[in-house]
Amino acid sequence: MISAFNTLSDSIASKLSYDKDSNTKGPLLGDSTALSLRSAMYSTIQGKAIGITGSFDQLADVGVTIGSGGKLTLNRDRLRAALEQDPQGVADLFAARVLAPTGPTVIPGTNGATYLNPDAPVQYISQGVATQLENFADSLINSVSGTLTRRNNSLNDQIASQNQRIAAMDDRLAVRRQILQAQFLRMEQAIGQLQQQQGSISQIGG
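Above: the chain's sequence. Below: its structure in token form.
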């Protein structure tokens, strides 16, 4: 988990970076989505587990902290001590995942009629920090509702729209070119006729 988090953090940082010496800008410099994503990552990793009853409720309690450069570091001695003290508490801190029971939804304006909503959001009674990170990742990359998925689809739609505009402009330019070529050909023909007439008049005058 620490390795994956640090790899992602480095990747985001490189894309948000700016080197003033070479005036090199990362491709996502100033991008609000990337900035919000990074902020939410650190907020989640430093937050507390939800709905657990063990001895530890945040990763710092078991030796996982933010070090230099914004990278996660592990104090192995502190983690071993926590595992000796409350192994289940450590497990719950990371991986607790208990879904809230789902029940039928009452249909408004009816006499007790209910239905099961397949689109109802998933609710949890307890979530470990790693579980929260997983759910956060899903909120970003879910193939239907993910924030980044929707952003990617929006950008693809914009690209497709621009490509359609370019294709339509190319078609108009091609038609305009044909018109101009036809006009130029008629002009060439008219000039040729005038030159012939000029020659004939010159001969008559001679």
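The longest strand covers residues 124-127.
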